Amino acid sequence: MAGAEFLRLEAVTKRYGQVLAVDNVSLSIERGEFFSLLGPSGCGKTTLLRMIGGFIQPDGGRVVIDGQDVTERPPNKRPTNTVFQSYAIFPHLNVRDNIAYGLRTERVAKTELDTRVDQALAMIKLEHCARKQSNQLSGGERQRVALARALVKRPKVLLLDEPLGALDKRLRESMQIELRQLQREVGITFVFVTHDQEEALSMSDRIAVMEKGKVLQVAAPKTLYEAPSSRAVASFIGTMNLFEGRVAAVSGGSVAVETFALGRLEAPRPDGASPGAGSAVLVAIRPESLLLSRALQGGPSRPCRLISTAYFGDRSQLQVGIEGVAAPVAVAVAVAAPNAGAADGRPFAAGEILNLSWRPDGIVLLPPD
């Protein structure tokens, strides 16, 4: 049943000598969920994935899939299949035979084998490539063949270890859409490893952010972006401006915070335990919650000097230095060039003195380090 717990990791740990690669990780993944493990290189996400697949044995803890403890089972005895970044397509076999390979090793009857391979080819929309050799395929086509070869065996869980990492940006973005659509069509559980935050945000039902072998936060993409639980998560997911502050007062649904960079500001009261008066906090503000203008907009603001502007087509990212504060503040303004955020149509110029204001509902209060 969709939405029910399906894959469970219980206090899973893995050491390599003195290095603690995975540190007492517990996770619960739902049936039919697209679940991503996100983090920088060396954070333990691939080690965790390979423990789910049985390629690496944990030093402690359990792996439970569909109610069965599979911790001691080898990969071929688990209801999983894996797609690696290298694809591992057999060069001496054509597309159809690559997809059929796993079924042949399991001695599936020819009639059923042919039916399942035909269904897999249709699923990845490569019927016209069935007789092509792997060296005749594009990167995106090889990636689809690797997916079909894994899915044709009808695993309960598909494990994907950065499968889009070798593709160029345009093809990778196209394949992200196709992969998400394919997962919805087949309805099986996907566990996806990536270091690309935009990739994880755009594809996942939920994401586990990892650092140094630990899971820092598990949440839906929107929650991770808008309500990170710590500086580490806030800094890894997108661009985040962070300011040290101290709580001046708590009243109803808002918290007054004194900051050196922005002065006194009002922030929404965090869910759960609220910081008390005098508590140290981190004030986190996404670039899109900040506004630059030549004229005062009303409400709290600070004078700033424009340092630089970077144009990204659909948005511009501006670096400004608040007057009297050494550290620059990153401001991303989603506007069309050449205006780069100027409401009066005149582009902002480097060195120009502007007013920096913010949306109170765009402020998140985080615990101090």
Strand content: 35-45%
Count of β-strands:
20
Structural class: alpha+beta
Largest sheet entry: 6 strands, mixed
Major β-sheet strand ordering: 6-7-8-3-9-10
| Approximate shape | elongated
The helix content is 10-25%
> Would you identify the regions where 5 or more consecutive residues have pLDDT less than 50?
334-339
How large is the radius of gyration? 25 Å
What's the average pLDDT? 88
Q: DSSP helix count?
A: 8
C-alpha end-to-end distance: 40 Å
> Helix and strand succession?
EEEHEEEHHHEHEHEEHHEEEEEEEEEE
Annotation keywords:
single chain, 369 residues, alpha+beta, six-stranded mixed β-sheet, five-stranded antiparallel β-sheet, 23% helix, elongated
How would you describe the overall organization of this protein?
This protein has 369 residues and is α+β, with helices and mostly antiparallel strands. 23% of the residues lie in helices and 36% in strands. The protein has a six-stranded mixed β-sheet, with helices on both faces. Strands 13-12-11-14-20 form a five-stranded antiparallel β-sheet. Helix 2 (95-105) runs parallel beside helix 4 (139-151) and helix 3 (110-123) packs across helix 4. The protein is elongated, with a radius of gyration of 25 Å. It starts with a strand and ends with a strand. Mean pLDDT is 88; it is low at 334-339.
